[in-house]
Amino acid sequence: MPTIKVESQLEYDVRQPTNMLFKIAAARTERQEVRNERLVVQPEMQMETLEVGLEGNTMQRLSVQPCQLTIQYEAEVVSVAQSTDLGNVAESNVGSLPMEVLPYLNPSRYCESDLLGRFAFEEFGQVQPGLLRVQAICDWVNEHLDYTPGSTGVMTTAADVVLQRTGVCRDYAHLAIALCRGIGVPARYVSGYAAQLQPPDFHGFMEVFLSGQWYFFDPTRLAPVDGLVRIATGRDAADVPFATITGDAGLTSKTVSAVFLPE
Amino acid sequence: MPTIKVESQLEYDVRQPTNMLFKIAAARTERQEVRNERLVVQPEMQMETLEVGLEGNTMQRLSVQPCQLTIQYEAEVVSVAQSTDLGNVAESNVGSLPMEVLPYLNPSRYCESDLLGRFAFEEFGQVQPGLLRVQAICDWVNEHLDYTPGSTGVMTTAADVVLQRTGVCRDYAHLAIALCRGIGVPARYVSGYAAQLQPPDFHGFMEVFLSGQWYFFDPTRLAPVDGLVRIATGRDAADVPFATITGDAGLTSKTVSAVFLPE
Amino acid sequence: MPTIKVESQLEYDVRQPTNMLFKIAAARTERQEVRNERLVVQPEMQMETLEVGLEGNTMQRLSVQPCQLTIQYEAEVVSVAQSTDLGNVAESNVGSLPMEVLPYLNPSRYCESDLLGRFAFEEFGQVQPGLLRVQAICDWVNEHLDYTPGSTGVMTTAADVVLQRTGVCRDYAHLAIALCRGIGVPARYVSGYAAQLQPPDFHGFMEVFLSGQWYFFDPTRLAPVDGLVRIATGRDAADVPFATITGDAGLTSKTVSAVFLPE
Amino acid sequence: MPTIKVESQLEYDVRQPTNMLFKIAAARTERQEVRNERLVVQPEMQMETLEVGLEGNTMQRLSVQPCQLTIQYEAEVVSVAQSTDLGNVAESNVGSLPMEVLPYLNPSRYCESDLLGRFAFEEFGQVQPGLLRVQAICDWVNEHLDYTPGSTGVMTTAADVVLQRTGVCRDYAHLAIALCRGIGVPARYVSGYAAQLQPPDFHGFMEVFLSGQWYFFDPTRLAPVDGLVRIATGRDAADVPFATITGDAGLTSKTVSAVFLPE
Prior knowledge:
The structure is a homotetramer. Chain A is α+β, with helices and mostly antiparallel strands. The first copy, chain A, has 2 domains: 3-80 and 242-260, Sandwich (Immunoglobulin-like); 86-239, C8orf32 fold (Roll), CATH 3.10.620.30. Chain A is 16% helix and 39% strand. Chain A has 4 helices and 14 strands. Chain A has helices at residues 117-124, 131-144, 158-164, 169-182; strands spanning 3-14, 18-22, 32-42, 48-52, 57-64, 67-79, 146-147, 166-167, 187-194, 203-210, 213-217, 228-234, 243-246, 249-260. In chain A, strands 3-6-1-14 form a 4-stranded antiparallel beta sheet, with no helix packed on it. A 4-stranded antiparallel beta sheet of chain A has the order 4-5-2-13, with no helix packed on it. In chain A, helix 1 packs across helix 4 (169-182) and helix 2 (131-144) packs across helix 4 (169-182). The B-D interface holds B 115-116, 118-119, 122, 144, 146, 159, 162-166 and D 115-116, 118-119, 122, 144, 146, 159, 162-166. Chains A, B, C, D: This is Transglutaminase-like superfamily protein. Chains A, B, C, D: InterPro entries: Bact_transglu_N_2, Papain-like_cys_pep_sf, Transglutaminase-like.
């Protein structure tokens, strides 16, 4: 059971009264224990903590007056390793999927699984169903995209990425999610921390539903899967930005870190 | 409190073992009472009823062997009329929105509010916030689109519609939803029945969150708002098709009806 | 030197004074001799014959008063067979391409070679340059698309087709053209007649520039290459519709035929 | 008859044998006289001058070995002022357009006039045809877009711009061209120099065909129309980049200048 120490610090120049939502705290789930957590905002102000949706996304909401705002988070996260016995994990029959899993079969803003369904079936329809097939999708994504910071933007979608063949972590995840949904495997986006990621930053990866449970996959292969720490879960990156700003505030500094603690 | 009698009948040629999900039953909510409901499947088979999500979407799930399948639904729905005092309904401050409403500010597959945000602000940023502004959006959509069956498909998005200026009910709703989200008003898609709709069919409209509650709007103006009956609620039409088919089944007949009952 | 007898007849219900441009006559080029040509319009009216561009596109222009219009074309076309010694035909060096060929390296409305360039290089960058590489592109297009009438429309582009994997002749040609331009091979769209095409209709195919001359390719494989008859040449289908109508006229009948004459 | 002194200097780090095409020399047309022209390449090498297409586009082609390449251009351009009597210039009847003008009615890569046709007719169908209508299109473009360097890229199209409402000179021109074609007015893209442009750079504007001749329009309003100097003409920016590079060469410096000379 690896333990990961995560930290982040964001600084903003808030120029007008502004509403801010932050998704930077590690999620508390059955698979992820959070210890020694600390969240500090400066200057001191009232902060509301919300939980949204069935996946336990936690967010902080602040109404901020003009100031230099700093928000700092740290925690130690103990995560339960997921099975790696790939050959034995099958796909769930669509007729027996739990109801809360069904929406993750639907196309979403950045994962046009409807548009890419025929492509997904053509490429992966003949592969053995289950973890092996999801692995094949992740391999395809990894091999056919070039990881190129700056090549995509916040509105880049899975379909864009299939065409242009470049992207960053969120694009890799979006494409893999769209292809999984396209062959009938529920898949969703996870924002988080990632131990050993270079350069350190927030990370985006995905989670697929197989044999009755969710499994993490990171098609970028930029960090070990057992070092992934969930912050928030959504249909795609549209649901889980680390900050949502309504008003006028500019990010002036961002520092993120995640390291394995010695056991 | 209008009462609407709704009926639908779908027939399928099921050619292989097929999983089918139906969203055709009226939702049971605080604002919508369902009486004398009857749902019949022929040939007789086991049917599972699921509720998905926070909006109380109800669906029927069937595993169907090859056959001629008929599914019939009928009910009487008493709906609580919503306020029509438009001038007095304001927009909610984003900082005080309930947590479960927040996802309806996010862009979705067919409602690219991120892409259309600047356009929305340019057109509607100066209009008085509240019901009047949402009404202005619906008026714009109604005036700038031509209702043209066949001009769009299942993958047509709000952005497509802004460009091509034609569509059907789902396109009208998608565009109005995208524009509402674009100016910071939570909005979602509702599939349903609509009394007096010509020709009778399932209908798609929208719901916006103002002053702490949800309000129906139908930018097509093809049916009176107090004759709208909710089946299911989603981010857009991707979430609420009347049928989802995994396998091989062709729709051979569809009959839909909705009429006001005398009070 | 195969000889092909081509015929077409178009009928229109002209409801207002309308300008009509027709591109239905076989082009007269070094490689294509046109004999026994006949073009008849009923009712009798003045008809202007225009030649546009460097490729010798011929078109008929009419100003039509309200009427039932019939335009009939027939001709015998003797075409010079092109080399089939695929292994010996190389790609031209971009630095020595004739000036009039250069525009056919540029992206066009339905052939987004800029967007698809990286994909083209990834798939075909390692293939031996020349006719064999163009053949590989045509094979890929043929194998990865399903020929599905009705699956695409007049605004479908090569990028759309890569994603959705279905199309008709113009889509096959657009995708192959985009991929050729993407790897630096000039390519253009040709509208025409095609002997043995089933069902008979106007056809769309492509032409690529290799070793100093243009070669026909038909990625649909629906008709023999030596039965292809050029009507008009353009950057893509936007340039060569068989009819361009400004006014109000509806096509009520279209008959097309192309057969090899016995030698 | 204003005289404009134009100069440009481009420097490249050429890392491999590279083919380069430059479009930086002022075009010689009936409306534009070029004097005291000087084009220098360093290191000294063979340079081929090509003219492409009916619009007299001139380009320089070089095969360059690895080196630090500098290309310098200067000239004095005397241009014939175009009519500004807007009310008297009508649109040409489509039935009498010269054959070489017809392709500029077709949609092109970055000007999707087919997609935007209905929008164009809705917005501008009722405006008096002629220069006044083209002016109305340019005004609409200028008022509805924000000039925002960096907001668009080389693959941004007119349809993108209608949605996102930001762009630079090429985007302004593309949108105005698409709208003109959409209402049946031939329009094309012109790259050039522009006196008084701030900051100095190459510029992109458009030309429309009215009453039998071409007229310049610059929807950005960033420079006076009589200070516009044509380099090259095309369907859109895809046809007229100032440099086309096949190989490996990076632009390390670009200096452009255009000033009115005292008469």
